[in-house]
Amino acid sequence: MPNQTRVAQFILRGFSDTPELKFVVILFFLFDYMFVLLGNSSIIIAVIRESRLHSPMYFFLKNLCFLDLCYTSVTIPKALVSSLMGSGVISYLECVAQLYMLITLGSTECFLLTAMAYDRCLAIYRPLLYASRMSQKLCAELVIMAWVAGALYSTFHTLNTFSLPFCGPNIVEHFFCDIPPVMRLSCSDFHINEEVGFAVSSCVVMSSFALTILSYVFIISTIARIPSVDGRWKAFSTCSSHLATVILFYGTGSFTYLRPASQYSPTRGRLASTFYSVVTPTLNPVIYCLRNKDMKGALRKLYCGKKH
């Protein structure tokens, strides 16, 4: 486009449009971020230190907690500093990097949850083959595949978003650089990019979700055949935490990413993003510790030096 200059920086709107709520919201995100750091890092350390937790399920949980730590660290510190300093300026390259890391971490978590569903399915549906099939090598390969797939998926979305020209306005109606609010700032027609991105996201996310659902079909059908109520509950309890995490992740993430950018609402977008980028990483450690005796024992030992 002639006589139009590409923007060199963006301005993040921040947590809230209401000045009266500024410090309340800042305190909420600050304490929540501290809880995310404490909760997820505690689980990682406990899994590493406690030999009883050296199993595939906890190996995947350790990686999930690491993803949650990285995910919140990509967005919250920058948003907190910007809000406290009163300036939401973020350079063009910083915005590109932030969006790339966000999509990489978010999609990697999506693929990791699918791998965790397969792990729980194999443990319940084929318990006699579980130890031989779910080896340390396979676990590592599944995690590496999740990271590689997430990076490739993120590369597509980053190129698809920032191949658009941006020549003003440059105010991002969000507290971090995300696809819908950034794409809406383009000074050209972004609908083709939007439709392509929506189609790819739908195929990738729904395929991953379908594999997760398929795993739970086998899990539920196996649990239903267990004769005793105690046996059914014991089997279900081994995957209940993962199921709760899956519902939280897909329920909040799909609200933002599986809808066209033209239908994006800044208020609803920030609210949904708060859930999947802040609340979900906060609740994951609670979910996995609430009914897990081994994890509670490991954390008690970590902080109190007691085994029981």
Summary tags:
3-stranded mixed sheet, Rhopdopsin 7-helix transmembrane proteins, single chain, 75% helix, 3% strand, 308 residues
SSE blueprint and pairings:
Blueprint: E1 9-12, H1 22-49, H2 56-85, E2 89-91, H3 92-125, H4 127-133, H5 136-162, E3 171-172, H6 179-183, H7 191-224, H8 229-257, H9 266-290, H10 293-304
Parallel strand pairs: 1-3
Antiparallel strand pairs: 1-2
Describe the structure.
With 308 residues, this protein is mainly α. The protein has a single domain (9-304), classed as Rhodopsin 7-helix transmembrane proteins (Rhopdopsin 7-helix transmembrane proteins), CATH 1.20.1070.10. The chain contains ten helices and three strands. Strands 2-1-3 form a three-stranded mixed beta sheet. Helix 5 runs antiparallel to helix 7 and helix 7 runs antiparallel to helix 8 (229-257). The radius of gyration is 21 Å and the shape is globular. The N and C termini lie far apart (68 Å). The mean pLDDT is 85.
Task: Briefly summarize what is shown.
The protein contains ten helices and three strands, in the order βααβαααβααααα.
Mean pLDDT: 85
In spatial order, strands of the major sheet run: 2-1-3
Radius of gyration: 21 Å
> What's the SSE pattern?
EHHEHHHEHHHHH
Main pleated sheet:
3 strands, mixed
Structural class: mainly alpha
How far apart, in Å, are the first and last alpha carbons? 68 Å
Proportion of residues in β-strands? under 5%
Number of strands: 3
Specify the CATH homologous superfamily. Answer: Rhodopsin 7-helix transmembrane proteins
Distinct helical segment count: 10
The helicity comes to: over 70%
CATH class descriptor: Mainly Alpha
- CATH level 3 topology: Rhopdopsin 7-helix transmembrane proteins
Task: Tell me the CATH architecture.
Answer: Up-down Bundle
